[in-house]
């Protein structure tokens, strides 16, 4: 896999030469997979393996605690009364909150991809950034599924797609990925893990929802049959890893996964 084309610097001011040489060396990979398939668990392994590998986590804490920066409004809005927990609101009433959630998730992913890399990573010889999900799963898995299930209406879907395309074309070089790692697990396994994890907001998630998301991941990343609107995404290298088995407590399986990631990065 080769690092993608040169990207402009949007981070804190750095000498141009340092930045452009870093951008050329940098490889960006997103980690995709169904809810509770084990992405956070997997990226913790990656982070431990190499100082040259950095993880950009999904900003779930932000989604669970949306704060208004506007002091003019002294009265609490209904979302603030809910503790600003947009993820909770999404699962409580998807027809009301799906569009809001999806645009906010997309915005937070764009911001995460624009953030400058750490000073340590900038000094690395072969720096790699791993993103927990991406602007692409935002659209082709979650938003698309919410539209197809009627939680996002035609107008909202049109606005979301317009906004998404605008973000991606405006910040194109920064949004480009060099590869995707798909953590593939059955919806049954994800449900089992989701219940063990016990995140409060997710307790009402039904099997049907995990099955639809599984289908979206499969057609996008395994069968590669869905139509995507971005050239770079059509050709992108994808590594599919079966994560149904427990690797959390198995050193040999962990090494095997790391070897596959290393081979993928070299390929
Ligand atoms: N391979 C595995 N074997 C056994 N348990 C696992 C495995 N991977 C993850 N788990 C457990 O499953 C639960 C969900 O894992 P994790 O939080 O990593 O999922 P995730 O994909 O990051 O979830 P989300 O989609 O919500 O971000 C956790 O309790 C974790 O400890
Ligand atoms: N609707 C929707 N759109 C997204 O882009 C998205 N990304 C993550 N999630 C949900 C899954 C987990 O519950 C939780 C943590 O991954 O957040 C999303 N939900």
UniProtKB/TrEMBL annotation:
Residues that bind ATP: 33-41, 193-197, 245-247
Matching SUPFAM superfamilies: P-loop containing nucleoside triphosphate hydrolases (SSF52540)
Keyword Protein biosynthesis applies: no
Protein origin, superkingdom: Eukaryota
Positions contributing to substrate binding: 58, 91, 102, 133, 138, 202
Record-annotated Deoxynucleoside kinase domain positions: 29-265
Transferase is among the record's keywords: yes
GO CC annotations, alphabetized: mitochondrion
Family indicated by similarity: Belongs to the DCK/DGK family.
Subunit description: Homodimer.
Active-site residues per Swiss-Prot or TrEMBL entry: 132 (proton acceptor)
Region annotated Disordered, chain positions: 1-20
Name under which the protein is recorded: Deoxyguanosine kinase
Source species of the chain: Alligator mississippiensis (American alligator)
One Gene Ontology term of the molecular function aspect: deoxyadenosine kinase activity
InterPro entries with a match to the protein in the record: DCK/DGK, Deoxyribonucleoside_kinase, DNK_dom, P-loop_NTPase
Catalytic activity: 2'-deoxyguanosine + ATP = dGMP + ADP + H(+); 2'-deoxycytidine + a ribonucleoside 5'-triphosphate = dCMP + a ribonucleoside 5'-diphosphate + H(+)
Keywords in alphabetical order: ATP-binding, Kinase, Nucleotide-binding, Transferase
